Amino acid sequence: MNRITPQPGIMDIALYQGGASHVAGVENVIKLSSNENPFGPSPKAIEAVRNAAATLHRYPSTDHASLRAAIADVHGLDPDRIICGVGSDEIITFLCQAYAGPGDEVIHTEHGFAMYRISALAAGATPVEVAERDRVVDVDAILAGCTERTRLVFIANPANPTGTMIGEAEVARLADNLPDQTILVLDGAYAEYVEGFDAGRAIIDARENVVMTRTFSKLYGLGGMRVGWGYGSREIIDVLNRVRGPFNLSTPALAAAEAAIRDFDYVEYCRAENTKWRAWLAEALAEQGVPSDTSCANFILARFGSPDEAEACDAHLQSRGLIVRRVAGYKLPDALRITIGGEEACRRVAAAVAEFK
Ligand code: PMP
User: Fold this and answer.
1) Where in this protein does the record say N6-(pyridoxal phosphate)lysine is found (predicted)?
2) Could you give the percent of the chain with pLDDT greater than 70?
3) Where would a tag sit more exposed on the chain, N or C end, judged by fewer CB atoms within 10 A?
């Protein structure tokens, strides 16, 4: 008898299916399925990676002091309340490892980002899904879903794959009404796309039970480097640092992130292009009878009449070299999530949808 079995819950985790960047037999493919920055990283980040080559024989910084100082400087935060991880995925993992185990519950919302459930299961905890209201996070449903076993509540603001947001008053109401033993995690992966948005920083500063996660994978164009960070109380950050490996981030990754966060002009350019072409694409698709919710992020969730229509349009877009994301796994089978590329990508998507229609 085979006695080598994984922990309970592990086999409930589906293997990741996305990530393709080629379509057999099609040229000039544009990948619009992972919410990446179409312009790539800041040239200063690329230069920093080149310079990092000189010290590749050394282990990287273990305390990430330089990157934390840069993040603290740019955002006006206390560097001792920041932790850096291998993408914000790793911060989500640390939170589940440190705070949720067998018998504990981890709340995510109906269309919430898949890593919340995966990390909860990997930690041996029980993921609990609560309903959204018209593809928007519903604070009352979350509060109704809490029990004395709820250890973590994850919401992304803006959310993926819907692109929707809830306001600061709603987030504060959620934080203030959670059970005592529950941490609220505000996932700000797309926060940079919202001009002037503090991603819940004021809420965190006024409370002990709220944490923020952020990433360099989206607006900063460094998905391939895998750098994210978290911000919370000194106590929580101290706990998370205990489960963090000493050398979790590579020297080039640390250098790239530090250069990217200080290149304000580039950040501004990428944000402005995204805002412009997101509005353009949403309108172009709406004119063809394909509506989308108002998106605050770097993608839109285009909604078709039926799952069959979404599937057929997906196939058509692929035949035109456009890879977008079906969100069936997110319980939105009639929708396609389309990353906002630059001008060429948006014009090609609009033309291909027009052909399809
Ligand atoms: N949170 C949300 C809502 C996301 O969409 C993503 C990336 N798809 C992440 C977190 C993780 O990003 P990363 O690990 O690259 O920081």
Assistant:
1) 218
2) 99
3) N
End-to-end CA gap in the chain: 56
Distance set, CA 191 to CA 67, 172, 220, 264 (Å): 19, 17, 12, 15
CA of 199 to the centre of ligand 1 (A): 15
pLDDT digits (tens, 9 = 90+) for 214-241: 999 999 999 999 999 999 999 999 999 9
**CB-based pocket (< 6 A), ligand 1:** 35, 87-89, 113, 156, 160, 187, 189, 215, 217, 223, 228
Contact present, 108 and 152 (Cβ < 8 Å)? no
Q: What angle do CA 348, 352, 355 make, to 5 degrees?
A: 145
Mean pLDDT of 42-53: 98
Closest ligand 1 atom to Cα of 159: 3
Distance 119 CA to ligand 1 centre (A): 13
Minimum-distance ligand 1 atom for the alpha carbon of 217 = 15
Peptide bond preceding 161 in cis form (omega within 30 of 0): yes
In angstroms, the Cα distances linking 13 to 2, 132, 183, 267 are: 21, 22, 23, 35
pLDDT at position 211 is 98
Q: Is the ipTM of this complex over 0.90?
A: yes
Q: Is the dihedral of CA 167, 169, 174, 175 positive or negative?
A: positive
Residue identifier of the C-alpha nearest atom 7 of ligand 1: 189
pTM of full prediction above 0.90:
yes
Tokens of 109: 């919302």
Q: What share of the chain is helix, strand, coil (3-state, %, to 5)?
A: 45, 15, 40
Cα of 2 from ligand 1 centre, angstroms: 36
